[in-house]
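Hey Z.,

So I finally got round to the zinc ion thing we talked about over coffee. Here's the setup:
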Amino acid sequence: MKKLFCFVALLLSLTLSAQAAVMLIYHHVASDTPRVSSVTAEELRGHLQYFKDNNFQVIGLDVLISQLRKGEPVAPDSIVITFDDSYENNFTTAHPILQEFGYPYTIFISPGSIDKGDGPLLNWQQVKQMSDDGVLVANHAMRHEHMARPEAGESQAQWRERMKQSILAAEDKIEQVTGQRHQWLAYPYGEYSSELEQLVTELGFIGIGQQSGAIGNHTVLTRIPRYPAAGQYADLKDLAQKLRTLAFNITDYHGVNPVISANPPQLKLSLKVEDFNRNQLQCFAGSEVLQPQWLDDNTFSVSAGKALNRGRSRYNCTAPSLSKKGYFYWYSQPWLN
Ligand SMILES: [Zn+2]
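And the result:
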């Protein structure tokens, strides 16, 4: 009896660990905008049709955040759709297509950029219209700042105050126009630091990045990952694999800070090895294959062979799931040099 109970408990925990959501980032929906941040209307339609035909469940970010906050199991095979930077083509081109499918989605906007009318952006009337149609409107900082670190000549305290004002002013403006106040911040450029995560937590916000990876019940709520879905990532074959990813059950991040202090940085993670084989864990820095070193049964460390370039880079670690055929565990660590 006890054995049977253990077996059922193991199966249940495997099933739970093999549940994950993914969040996708789009920017432009157009054929005459920079390809790297664009999908065409046909490509967007193709993505949505694929989700529908393959029984993926598109949920609102509010539903996902509520599941994560309550510690409820994340709905399996669920997808959250997001658009950053409030381009006008989100209203003119993407919105009607998403409405046709009845899919919820979120736009992350920088109110200061909209106020200034910087480029082909949504105006406030369009934002209000989208909000009235059920679109979730959330925070992308006031002026799309690089947020992770103080500027030259700025003290830590000044930086902190400037970031706090940016986050709160953007949130207030969104609430003023739409009545929505979610307290979700998508970091501009996906750039964050441990210090910024601390501020976001103190302000009662959720932090959302641009590093890839699946979302599960152990995902840290100040660095929720998203997969890019535009440009070279718009290809359905590539995207389809990312939709079938799972979140490693990470128990200790060993204080990892994306703003690196040593180059190359070392990533050290402790995780539950329950639905993948240790020797099938693979890590990459760009196209470079890295050799993870297992320090004990549940902890590995990994470093690139050479110094990282200036700016943003990543380590990606993946392992095939044992219980869910065709699915991969996926974790991405962003770095800022
Ligand atoms: Zn942005």
